[in-house]
Amino acid sequence: MIQLTRLNNQTFTLNALYIEQIQAFPDTTITLTNGKKLVVKESEDDVAVKVQSFYQQVGLTSIQIKGQWNTQEGEKK
Questions:
Q1: Mean pLDDT per 10-residue run, the chain (77 residues)?
Q2: Distance from first CA to last CA of the chain, Å, rounded?
Q3: For residues 27 and 39, what is the distance between their CA atoms, to the nearest angstrom?
Q4: What's the DSSP call for residue 1?
Q5: In the chain, where the domains are located
Q6: Rounded to whole angstroms, how far apart are CA atoms 74 and 38?
Q7: What is the DSSP string of 7-65?
Q8: DSSP 3-state assignment of 2?
Q9: Contact criterion met (CB below 8 Å) for 67 and 75
């Protein structure tokens, strides 16, 4: 789960498994797998980092971002 902020400053928690895409229009818009759209204050990059971190926490990926170990290839990027 990731914590995000709506444009009215209300925070909420989203199950990142349901995210289909993230876009900036310029506001960051998250489209869920059911077609629902959410607009949040966080940048597109910030949301992507939160999603990646969540995936690592639940064991869905072992690939680290920017200079971290890539355990699938066994080498440092």
A1: 97 97 95 97 96 90 56 49
A2: 27
A3: 7
A4: -
A5: 2-76
A6: 37
A7: TTS-EEEE-GGGEEEEEESSSEEEEETTS-EEEESS-HHHHHHHHHHHHHHTTS--BPS
A8: strand
A9: no
